[in-house]
């Protein structure tokens, strides 16, 4: 304690100054044990780096008549720190606004800080639309009055079905019974069917076998060779156009029909290959109709 009259310091248990007899009071600048026990230290708020210094408080003048315990109890608490001033808003540029917008869309800040991703709405996928087919080279469709392409109608099976039952065994047996009349009928049927199959694509026409046989007598057999060569060429071209995997052509006629006659079985092998090729073409025509 400090004597307010003479300025001497005494222990806290003394109540009066031994020199001048004045009542002792607690020094307001030095906390006593009672003040430390009664008044807890006030928490210090974090001070901002740029905050202005807090104003200094003026110590309370000593009270001569107040006891020490009452003064310790009534000691004022430390003043609260003044709130830090809010920083002034900074003006943002157009570049910063665009970076913030892109960051909010991708879920990351423009300066590398991770931000919560923005939920992306789920859009149902549209079913693929079927594109209509516009025919083939032979039937490409037509152009309407509005300038749009009209799809070609799907091919329909033909009303008349071609023969697909050509057989080498029936060709041999019936030709022997009818004295080669059935053989001439079979080859004439081949000439008619190949015109039905290929004439609208190659713009050619094979002479019927009956007429060729009549004119062949006048040409001493030369017309027969030419007729068979051209007819076999058309059959081979039609097989390739329809993408049928069977090998046949004019070389088949010259190899088996002409040169094979020296071994007697060559013409029969040629007839078998010709009938099989025509059966394949007729079956494809009966299904596709073209």
UniProtKB/TrEMBL annotation:
Keywords of this entry: Membrane, Transmembrane, Transmembrane helix
Residue ranges occupied by any DUF4234 domain in the UniProt entry: 166-235
KW Transmembrane helix (keyword) present: yes
Biased composition (Pro residues): 40-64
Keyword Transmembrane in record: yes
Classification via Pfam families: DUF4234, Zn_Ribbon_1
Residue ranges occupied by any Zinc-ribbon domain in the UniProt entry: 3-21
Biased composition (Polar residues): 94-107
Name of this protein: Zinc-ribbon domain-containing protein
Lineage: Bacteria, Bacillati, Actinomycetota, Actinomycetes, Bifidobacteriales
């Amino acid at each position: 304690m400090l004597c307010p009259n003479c300025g001497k310091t005494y222990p806290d248990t003394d109540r009066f100054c031994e020199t001048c007899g004045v009542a002792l009071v607690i020094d307001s600048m030095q906390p006593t044990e009672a003040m430390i026990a009664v008044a807890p230290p006030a928490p210090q708020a974090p001070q901002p780096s740029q905050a202005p210094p807090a104003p200094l408080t003026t110590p309370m003048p000593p009270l001569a008549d107040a006891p020490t315990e009452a003064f310790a109890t009534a000691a004022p608490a430390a003043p609260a720190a003044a709130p830090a001033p809010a920083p002034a808003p900074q003006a943002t540029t157009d570049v910063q606004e665009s970076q913030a917008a892109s960051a909010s869309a991708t879920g990351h800040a423009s300066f590398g800080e991770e931000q919560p991703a923005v939920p992306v709405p789920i859009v149902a996928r549209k079913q693929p639309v079927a594109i209509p087919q516009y025919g083939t080279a032979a039937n490409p469709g037509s152009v309407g009055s509005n300038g749009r392409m009209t799809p070609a109608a799907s091919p329909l099976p033909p009303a008349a079905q071609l023969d697909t039952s050509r057989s080498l065994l029936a060709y041999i047996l019936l030709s022997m019974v009818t004295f080669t009349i059935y053989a001439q009928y079979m080859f004439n049927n081949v000439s008619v069917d190949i015109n039905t199959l290929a004439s609208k694509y190659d713009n050619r026409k094979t002479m019927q076998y009956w007429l060729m046989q009549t004119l062949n007598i006048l040409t001493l057999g030369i017309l027969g060779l030419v007729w068979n060569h051209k007819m076999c060429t058309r059959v081979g071209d039609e097989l390739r156009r329809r993408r049928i995997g069977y090998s046949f052509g004019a070389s088949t006629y010259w190899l088996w029909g002409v040169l094979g006659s020296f071994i007697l079985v060559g013409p029969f092998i040629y007839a078998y290959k010709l009938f099989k090729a025509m059966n394949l073409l007729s079956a494809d025509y009966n299904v596709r109709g073209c």
